[in-house]
Amino acid sequence: MTKITPKPLAMTMGEPAGIGPELALRAWLRRSDIGATFFVIADPAPLRALAGSLGLAAPVAIVAPEEAVSAFDHALPVVPLEATAAAAPGRPDAAFARATIESIERAVGYVRSGAANAVVTNPIAKHVLYEAGFAFPGHTEFLGALAREWGGPSQPVMMLWSEALAVVPVTIHIPLAEAPAALSKDLIVSTARIVAADMAKRFGVARPRLAVAGLNPHAGEGGAIGREEIETIAPAIAALRAEGIDVSGPHSADTMFHAAARARYDVALAMYHDQGLIPIKTLAFDSGVNVTLGLPFARTSPDHGTAFDIAGKGLADPASLIAAARLAARLAAE
To answer: CA–CA separation, 53 vs 157, rounded Å?
Structure first.
């Protein structure tokens, strides 16, 4: 039997035309690897149809959140959406964007009400949501807005975590050409504060070690290849040290991610999205987890996208979703 937890995890459906629905089914089939109960906020009919078409022995039970724990061992508990999500696998359609958004909103609402203890989100397709008028760059920013509605923080922080490496991009979903202008001393300082606080609070690291990357090649080479390290990054590091935070840098990013370097820090702060995400996806593509720090609740997600090319074909690997659910349960228990 699955370990019975006082409250289940609230799992979102994700993009209905992607691999999220299949991942949810497969995660339930491997529920013993998670060690906690969960329910999925989804449209039950297409989920049942998908299980049948893939030959997965994953019965679906329509439940209220408070019924999820008792149903979990014999069926995947599904809290039904009001919106329909009958998208064909691999064929995204903005007509079903409302269902994706509703799933996220309700997951956060269930944690807020005490019906769930953490949020686990399946991948979304941002371009599909944009077509329907979605006003946020991505999951992280939307979750931050939902948290603010009930007194949460104003700056959610995205961390990609694995046993091998944890990274935080200081600038996130913006064009690379805009990253240098978006980078500021205040942004680096506020991001690092949240990382240090949540690493202590949720991960149990009493004094987290943060390593800050430079923006330019060779961390600017003393100003010869750019001055952001001198004018922006180093002053931020000095301010953080003055607050008692264990932080080093700016480091040349091309020497930060080999095994010996990783042993010297707990989290790497990258200055832009790909600087941090390429290393972790190289090291831990199937086991990496997206964690949102700075929220009043634990939220995790697989470290991959919707994979429309394999949706509905029975090829989706649930390893990252399982890792995300396992980590969510751990963080909620800290």
So the answer is: 38
| DSSP single-letter state for residue 306 | -
Q: In this structure, what is the dihedral angle of CA atoms 147, 153, 158, 159, given to the nearest 10 degrees?
A: -110
pLDDT in tens, 232-272: 999 999 999 999 999 999 999 999 999 999 999 999 999 99
Q: What residues make up the domain containing 81?
A: 1-155+295-334
Please return the burial class of 62, using the count of CB atoms within 10 Å of its CB with bins 0-12, 13-18 and 19+. middle
Looking at the fold, whether 307 and 275 belong to one and the same domain comes out as: no
In whole angstroms, what is the distance from residue 216 CA to residue 225 CA? 7
How many residues can be counted in the chain? 334
| Of residues 273, 274, 235, 275, the one with CA closest to residue 252 | 275
Full-model pTM = 0.88
Secondary structure class of 203 (helix, strand, coil): coil
